Structures are given as C-alpha cells and as structure tokens.
UniProtKB/TrEMBL annotation:
Keywords of the record: Signal
Native species: Dermatophilus congolensis
Lineage top rank: taxon: Bacteria
Keyword Signal included in the entry's annotation: yes
Signal sequence extent: 1-22
KW Transmembrane helix (keyword) present: no
Phylogenetic classification of the source organism: Bacteria, Bacillati, Actinomycetota, Actinomycetes, Micrococcales
Domain Fe/B12 periplasmic-binding residues, every copy: 56-331
Protein name: Corrinoid ABC transporter substrate-binding protein
InterPro entries registered for this protein in UniProt: ABC_Transporter_SBP (IPR050902), ABC_transptr_periplasmic_BD (IPR002491)
Gene3D superfamilies assigned to the protein according to its UniProt record, in alphabetical order: Nitrogenase molybdenum iron protein domain
Record family assignment: Belongs to the bacterial solute-binding protein 8 family.
Length: 331
C-alpha cells in the first residue's frame, strides 16, 4: 500500500486476470481492429496491434490525455481518470470538448472503465490494471475490444530503471497509433530540445548534490531510481540516492531515517507535492527538522507537482526545466 502511495504521488506519482463475460458494453473487435492502417507497436516488451484511428480514448492519467491533445487529437479523449482534484487540462477543453472524469484519487473500477466502451486505454503504470483492486485487467479490456498502451517508463520491467527519454518513445508510439506521425515528429523534436537546453544550461557547471524526497507526516521516502530519478540527472543534478544503493534494489523509492538525510547533507532538496497545503506543510517541516542541512539552510528547496512525475506525461519535461533553473539560477 505504501509503495503504491509513492507511485501515485511522487514519486507519486511517485509506487491478474479474471475472465470477462461481455455484457454488451465493449466495442467489438471487428469494429476496432479491422486491420486498416493498424499500428504494430511493442509495449512493455510485447507486440500489439493497435486499432486504426481510435476515436474513443480513455486516459487513466490526465497528463496522458494532455499528450494526446498535443498530438492534435484532443477530441478523441472521451474520459480521463485520477485527476486528484485538479481541473481537466485546458489542452483537452480548449475547443469546448469535455471528457468524462471517471475517478479522482484512484483508478476507475472495472465497471466504470468498461462502461466507457474504450477503443484505446492509456495508463501511466501497470498498477491501474490490478484485478485484486477491482480494476479492469489488460486481458479484460482486450476481450472487450480495447487495446492498452502503458507509458514506457511505467512498464513493470522498467519502473526502477526508466529514463525521462522514455517519453520520446511514448510520443513516437502514440503518433503511429493515432495516425499523427508528422505531429509526433514535431513534438518529439520539441521534447528533445527541452532536454538539450537543460544539458546546455548545466554544461561546465558544478553539479549540486540533490535529494529527491516524498514527505508525508514524519515519514521521509527517498527516490533512488525510476523516471523520477532520471529527471534529476537530466536537469543537471547529482543524486545522493542511486539505483545501486541496496535500499532501492527492489523498488525505486524507500523510506529513510532523518539521520540518513542529515548524513547525505544535500545542497538541494526536491520533493513532490500533492497540492499547496502539502507543499506548505512540507517546507515548514523541513525547516523545523533540518535547519542545518545545506539545502534547508540556503533555502534551496524545490517543490514539484506530483502529477509531473508520473510516467508518460509532458510534465516530466516541465519538471526537468523547473529543477534545471533551480539548480543553475545564475546562468
């Protein structure tokens, strides 16, 4: 449960299969996978045939819906989920389109998701398809006529070693699925340009020691792997926690003691925030408990919206830019 809280927030955004009896709610395979211009994509290590020109897309994270909008297909996103109280991205509503919001702080139930009759379901991680939680599995969705695309950085075999450049893989893949190759190439180039700009800003500079954390109450969890960890590196930071550390051998995040944070003495602390109140509480807590840590002493604390850290979202690039500017403010 705790690991999932991290995956959904920090690190959030940060940490099965049942047999489906079709109840007349799924789109038939023949109506979706008719083979016409179907895209052959390898996702999470498995080859899939995606429906040609999908018109009913459900994004299990608003950021993935935003990515579809950036590819010029906002009107195809019929529903989004896990908004965490945030408004629907303006990229999806700019032309009067209003996708249905299926859920707030958790994935939609199997019944909710199947009830949308999706042709394509986008998810930031594999967790959203956990049968034991009451969510629709990938198999159930495919039996109902929908195909599934999981963000490259959220695939189970990559969750701990993902890279921010996995977003480029998502852009290319979704462009093919949507028949938006030109738009995808332009978006790919724009994304690469943002990462290159961050690299240039950090060039010939001394990398600050950075601790990336998620704090809830008196519990500190550090990020030592995954796409979140990669974002710090892309921004030009030197992570004080790394995948080689034993604590991160099985999961990209781990609880740490106060003594560990003091011992690491980071020059910058980056933390994921679930909202303004959480950000305020976290800053106050750090100031109260770690006044002698360099990052706190010099007020080099960077708050990032937890939504920006979820795999498969343009927010990953926004997070890199925010950190990059905080790490190198004078350049």
């Amino acid at each position: 449960m705790k690991n999932r809280a991290l995956a959904a927030t920090a690190a959030a955004a940060l940490i099965g299969s049942l047999t489906l009896t079709a109840c007349g709610q799924g789109v038939s395979n023949s109506s979706v996978n008719n083979g016409k211009n179907a895209a052959q994509i390898t996702n999470c290590g498995k080859a899939h045939t995606y429906p040609a020109d999908p018109q009913r897309i459900v994004a299990l994270n608003p950021g993935q819906g935003d990515l579809i909008a950036r590819l010029g297909a906002a009107d195809r996103v019929t529903a989004i989920a896990q908004t965490n109280g945030a408004p629907i991205p303006t990229s999806l509503t700019a032309n009067g389109h209003k996708p249905t919001v299926l859920s707030d702080s958790a994935p939609p139930t199997k019944e909710q998701l199947l009830g949308t009759q999706p042709q394509l379901v986008l998810s930031p991680t594999t967790y959203e398809f956990t049968a034991e939680k009451g969510y629709a599995t990938e198999d159930q969705l495919r039996q109902a006529g929908a195909e599934v695309y999981i963000a490259a950085a959220g695939c189970l075999d990559r969750r701990g070693k993902a890279d921010v450049t996995d977003l480029l893989t998502d852009i290319d893949a979704l462009g093919k699925i949507l028949g938006k190759d030109k738009e995808a190439q332009e978006l790919h180039n724009k994304a690469q340009g943002i990462l290159t700009a961050a690299t240039e800003r950090a060039k010939d500079q001394t990398k600050p020691k950075v601790a990336q954390l998620f704090i809830e109450g008196d519990t500190i969890s550090a990020i030592g792997g995954g796409v979140e960890h990669s974002m710090v590196a892309a921004a030009g930071g030197d992570n004080v926690f790394n995948p080689d550390d034993p604590a991160f051998a099985k999961f990209f995040a781990a609880e740490i003691s106060r003594e560990t944070l003091v011992d690491k003495n980071p020059e910058v602390i980056v933390f994921s925030s679930t909202g303004k109140d959480h950000e305020k509480r976290t800053r106050e807590w750090l100031t109260k408990n770690f006044a002698n840590v360099e990052a706190v002493k010099n007020d080099r604390i960077v708050a990032l919206p937890a939504a920006e850290l979820l795999p498969g979202t343009w927010g990953n690039l926004d997070a890199v830019t925010s950190m990059n500017e905080a790490f190198y403010p004078a350049k």
